[in-house]
Design goal:
Blueprint (H helix, E strand, L loop, with lengths): L2 E5 L3 H12 L3 E5 L11 E4 L1 H9 L3 H7 L1 E2 L2 E6 L5 E6 L2 H7 L4 E4 H14 L3 E4 L4 E7 L2 E6 L4 E4 L1 E4 L6 H6 L6 E13 L11 E7 L2 E8 L4 E9 L9 E3 L1 H7 L5 H8 L4 E8 L7 E2 L2 E3 L14 H15 L7 H25 L1 H4 L3 H12 L3 H12 L12
Parallel strand pairs: 1-2, 1-12, 2-8, 5-14, 12-20
Antiparallel strand pairs: 3-7, 4-7, 5-6, 9-10, 10-11, 13-16, 13-18, 14-15, 15-16, 17-18, 19-20
Helix pairs in contact: 1-5, 1-9, 2-3, 2-9, 9-10
């Protein structure tokens, strides 16, 4: 039985704790904040994410709380034309073995926290900010702000895009600023006109911008998330913004899209950031996971899913031999690197589909409208259909 020190009490870190505990190991999770809590709005979970949650024993609980989406709907944001839909019921669920759902981030995080607290093998420590790590012999130690230390057989850095563990392990500087600003708010569903309460994740595509919305929290709220290419070069997060500014930024969109945006209040803004894939996530008895390893733009709706996949693969690889941890960590990186890098690049490339104008937008609409439901399912199968999550695919 090994003792795993996990840095970061978000979705990835808690999932990792559950995964290693299910393999008979002990875990201590270090969270920099004063409590294990999660902010944010909606998370989309494709079948691959739910398969990972099934492996962690939480699939049924998440499906019970989530909104089960009927389709991914693509709209021309300027003309209001319904261009195409990727159906998510029937054939999709049979093919991929799970529904496509959305859940409030806080609900998913709460389920993970509760599961960790029920496990006698997991210790949760809030108010523990990591600054780096040290290794000596067969141990790895997390260094804490203020001089504290937590030692175990291994360290898993799941401390997000600004990871202190990654800073020491990879040393690749600040995240890449995309130049895209996203605005977010959540509104009660009763404020949404009934004819616009679609059970869909809907994209309104416009020139240099797009607008996504979907129901969360069991359908009680509508999550609004418009994005626009602003060219900003400095990172910022959760900055309040006046509703008029949001409406002005999307004034070129169709009237229906503008009606929904006009319902938004208490908007906040973020500049989107990610990192280039790197060839090393491990250093002896230290490994990275989730956004600390492979932060990606949210446009592929796979960030949480990939962190969950990481946790399951890592848990599967850790056997009873503590001496083999460095080798197992290298295997984990080998199994996960190519898949996560491909999704990172796919998320970046998606704006080429959503943000064209004029003739390019018309050509895109024509191309998408000619695709059948099966064609669209085939297009996402490599991402949504994964169940083994490693490089060997179904062979694992």
């Amino acid at each position: 039985m090994a003792r795993m020190v996990i840095v970061g009490g978000g979705i990835g870190g808690l999932a990792a704790a559950l995964a290693v505990a299910r393999r008979g190991h002990r875990a201590v999770v270090l969270e920099r904040a004063g409590a294990f809590a999660e902010i944010g709005a909606g998370i989309q979970l494709a079948p691959n994410g739910l398969h990972a949650l099934d492996r962690l024993g939480l699939g049924d609980a998440v499906r019970a709380r989530a909104v089960h989406i009927d389709e991914l709907r693509f709209m021309d944001g300027v003309s209001g034309e319904h261009v195409a839909s990727l159906p998510l019921t029937g054939v999709y669920r049979r093919r991929f073995g799970n529904p496509y759902v959305v859940v409030h981030r806080g609900e998913l995080h709460g389920l993970l926290v509760d599961a960790c607290r029920r496990s006698p093998a997991i210790e949760l420590r809030a108010g523990s900010r990591a600054t780096g790590y040290r290794q000596h012999g067969g141990t790895a130690t997390v260094l804490l702000d203020g001089g504290g230390r937590v030692t175990g057989d291994a360290v898993i850095g799941a401390d997000g895009i600004h990871s202190a563990i990654r800073r020491q392990l990879v040393g690749d500087g600040a995240p890449r600023v995309s130049g895209i600003t996203v605005y977010r708010t959540v509104i009660p569903m009763e404020r949404v006109p009934e004819e616009l309460r679609w059970n869909a994740v809907t994209w309104w595509a416009g020139p240099g911008r797009h607008f996504v919305h979907y129901a969360i929290a069991g359908g009680r709220y509508l999550n609004l998330a418009p994005s626009v290419e602003t060219g900003v070069t400095e990172p910022f997060a959760a900055v309040p913004v006046e509703r008029e500014r949001v409406r002005d930024a999307f004034a070129c969109l169709d009237g229906t899209a503008r009606r929904l945006l006009a319902l938004g209040e208490e908007w906040k803004s973020w500049v989107l950031v990610d990192r280039d894939p790197v060839d090393r996530w491990t250093d002896g008895r230290v490994a990275l996971l989730g956004d600390a390893a492979h932060p990606m733009l949210h446009y592929a709706a796979q960030g949480a899913c990939q962190a969950l996949e990481d946790a399951v693969v890592l848990g599967d690889l850790l056997d009873d031999d503590a001496d083999a941890i460095p080798e197992r960590f290298e295997k984990y990186h080998a199994e996960r690197h190519d898949r996560t890098a491909r999704i990172t690049h796919a998320a970046r490339a998606s704006t080429r589909l959503w943000h064209p104008a004029g003739a390019e937008a018309k050509a895109r609409n024509q191309m998408l409208s000619e695709l059948s439901g099966t064609d669209l399912h085939d297009h996402v199968a490599w991402m949504h259909g994964a169940r083994a999550f490693g490089a060997a695919g179904a062979g694992r």
